[in-house]
Amino acid sequence: MLFCVSGCLRGPSRSQAAPANNPRGGWLAGATSRPLFLLILVPVMAATAPPPSSAAPSLDQPSRTVERPRRKSRAVFVGGVQVGGGAPIAVQSMTTGKTHDVENCLKEITRLADAGADIVRVAVPRPEDADALADLVQGSPVPLVADIHFNYKYALQAIDAGIAKVRINPGNIGKPEWEREVLLAAKEKGIPIRIGVNAGSLEKDILDKYGFPQPMALFESAMRHVEVCEREGFEDIVISVKHSDVFFMIQSYRILAERTDYPLHLGVTESGTVKAGSIKSAIGIGSLLADGIGDTIRVSLAADSEHEVEVGHLILKSLRLGRPGVNIIACPTCGRLAGDLFSIVNEVEEAVAERKFDKDLSVALMGCAVSGPGEAAGADLGISLGRGRAHLFKHGEVVRTVPEDQIVETVLEAIETWDEEAEAAS
Ligand code: SF4
User: Relative to the CA of 336, which ligand 1 atom is closest?
Assistant: First the structure.
């Protein structure tokens, strides 16, 4: 963890790091004057307590060696991608173009795969979309998921077409016998199903019971369909309980995480533009991941789908989860800034994204020499700007001094030549 004289990169204090599950906050505060709400909410709060302390990292350990906790979940396989069971957290996205436009849809899927999507979902709202699935499966570089609402027959067709997973919305899939038919077909093919509950499309009786899409309502909807699956002996299940309200979303997943061991697909639904949606997703998905909850993530943005993948990986990287990668840390700058740090950060970040370094290291880019070694000590590599030059740090020790116009290439070269095994042994 880095410390800076301006407090720009301060680590969490013990009090800040404690789980923020303040029972007086948010929606409970508004409900305390309403006894009827309390009847509903008290069990929710009990169920939404943070994970047991044994799952949380010890704050006494040095921050770089803190073990990232993970909830134990079952494993399912989406094509060749394992989800749950301790597998790396898979990043998903969804195409925005028309599924039946096979050529363009495959181009978009390929762009998503190139951006780092492990799994891609396609919407299947029309017969022609269902008809296109076989070609898409053939041409896709990553496993595909068919997203089905309303028409269970499209799910059957998707399974026949070789789709790797089906997402059904329990709130609108229709009669229980239709759902059973889909389960049996998936079971026969050995593919998983995601029970994708969405706050905006809950079953009417559940909405009537709870009054609004509160966490227990989402949980009940999901479990109703989990029970249908289990009755059929079908346990290849992934669950999601998405909500556009980040607080409710977090609580819904916490309930699920405590009461089931099925893998969880995390997402904030209808989260908005790149800016707002990234923040909401980072809070919602990130809070859960920090507690060890979540096996696959999808960031939903009203933007080009590649942004979703990029933000998904940034969330994982921020928690030092996910694939190895270079984690750029940069100070926000202040009156002590001794050079053009913004350009340096942008250039390094762009080059790192482009070169896709398969190395797990953090690189601190700092704007002044006031706190030099101390600030860079928490990172593997670091620079601190001075007047027209910069010190290059390795584990907090100055190893070189370089002119400002050579900083970017020097940092990239240091990343390029970084030898993780040698570093671990030294
Ligand atoms: Fe911190 Fe950056 Fe200001 Fe230096 S320039 S004190 S590193 S914020």
Answer: 5
Q: Which atom of ligand 1 is nearest the CA belonging to 337?
A: 5
Which atom of ligand 1 is least distant from the CA of 370? 4
E strand or H helix that includes residue 302:
none
14: three-class secondary structure by DSSP: helix
Q: How far is the CA of 8 from the centre of ligand 1 (A)?
A: 7
CA of 7 to the centre of ligand 1 (A): 8
Ligand 1 centroid, distance to 344 Cα (angstroms): 14
Centre of ligand 1 from the C-alpha of residue 117, in Å: 35
Task: Specify the residue with its C-alpha closest to ligand 1, atom 4.
Answer: 368
Q: Using DSSP bridges, classify how beta strands 81-83 and 76-78 pair: parallel, antiparallel or unpaired.
A: antiparallel
What is the rounded distance in angstroms from the CA atom of residue 156 to the CA atom of residue 172?
Answer: 16
State the Cα–Cα distance between residues 199 and 30, nearest whole angstrom.
Answer: 20
Ligand 1 site, CB within 6 A? 4-6, 8, 331-334, 336-337, 366-368, 370, 375
Exposure b/e, 79-98, CB count within 10 A at least 16 = b: bebbbbeebbbbbbbbbebb
Using the atom order of ligand 1, give the atom closest to the CA of residue 335.
3
Task: Show pLDDT as tens, one digit a residue, over the chain (426 residues).
Answer: 444 444 444 333 333 333 333 332 332 233 333 333 333 333 444 444 444 433 444 455 444 545 678 999 999 999 999 999 999 999 999 999 999 999 999 999 999 999 999 999 999 999 999 999 999 999 999 999 999 988 899 999 999 999 999 998 766 777 778 888 999 999 999 999 999 999 988 989 999 999 999 999 999 999 999 998 998 899 999 999 999 999 999 999 999 999 999 999 999 998 889 999 999 999 999 999 999 999 999 999 999 999 999 999 999 988 888 777 888 989 888 888 988 999 999 999 999 988 888 888 889 999 987 766 676 667 899 999 988 999 999 887 889 999 999 999 999 999 999 986 666 666
Whole-prediction pTM value?
0.79
